[in-house]
Specification:
By secondary structure, this protein is mainly α. Helix 1 packs antiparallel against helix 3, helix 4 packs antiparallel against helix 5 and helix 4 runs antiparallel to helix 6. The radius of gyration is 18 Å and the shape is flat. The two termini are 16 Å apart.
Length: 147
Amino acid sequence: MKYSIQKEVQSIKRIQRFGGAVLGTYILLMIIALLFEKMLLIPLMWTVAVFLTFMGHKQYRLLRHVSTHPKSLQWLKVEYADTWISALLMGTFMTALLTMESLGIVIGFLFGIWGLTANHRKRFIERQLKKHDPHAPTYEELIERMS
């Protein structure tokens, strides 16, 4: 199990190392899409949505190894589902906004509310995780500890 956690952390650190270059490329592609062809924003946002779910899956896989309480594992699944919903709303919002503006505005409203409540959901989930498993490290603490 220790080897599996170490392997996951190495994979996450490798992804984080290229974060600056990926962010720069993303911003450049977004500017190009806005200047020349707005429809290019759709695959760009879906790529970000897929990456968001991928990183959420990595986080879930890493934290489930250190989770000792069954309720804590359930709350990790809720956190993973929250990541999926955020990613789907983001991709759907951009697709609907560029293809059907009226539906895009409605989905954008839902996406906005979901984004505004993100901090509250995150704090609530973290409180529930600490309540059921008080000695379990957070995602950031685990990455720092295993680096």
